[in-house]
Design a protein that fits this description.
This protein is mainly alpha-helical. It has 10 helices and no strands. The two termini are 28 Å apart.
Length: 147
């Protein structure tokens, strides 16, 4: 069950609600029948939150970390900086990620951290954005860190 939730999260976490709305509008213009066949969530934030809760209740630790990172990324994508940062701090992700053997989770951590920094920048919190992004920028392996 948690693997199914992770698969769904993999397809949901990186898309914003405005993207879903534009896809829905474009499909409705092209063909009303086609738009009825495609499932697009009305509130991706709620759906991502529900899927993350499901993974946390029944998933393995590695999947729980990944689900949390998806949730952080999704919050940051929607400019909910406080929720994204609180979730990172509450779960102690910065300490845990360095002890993980799973490179995919380390890459996802770097992506979530970068998206959180970009959210701070979009909100005009330049110093906070700098503080979040400085570790990624100072490393000479930008491309490897973000894959």
């Amino acid at each position: 069950m948690s693997r199914v939730a992770i698969i769904k999260l993999t397809y949901l976490y990186y898309k914003s609600d405005s993207m879903y709305a534009s896809i829905k509008t474009r499909l409705a213009r092209q063909s009303p029948e086609a738009s009825a066949k495609v499932y697009l969530p009305e509130d991706s934030c709620k759906m991502v939150g529900d899927l993350v809760d499901l993974v946390h209740s029944v998933g393995q630790p590695r999947l729980r970390y990944r689900a949390t990172l998806y949730h952080v990324y999704h919050h940051a994508l929607h400019n909910r900086l406080r929720q994204a940062k609180d979730l990172m701090m509450k779960t102690h992700m910065s300490q845990l990620v360095h002890h993980m053997n799973n490179i995919d989770n380390q890459i996802m951590y770097n992506r979530a951290l970068t998206q959180t920094g970009l959210a701070a920048f979009r909100l005009g919190k330049i110093q906070e954005a700098h503080d979040l992004l400085v570790d990624i920028q100072n490393n000479q392996k930008h491309k490897e860190l973000l894959a």
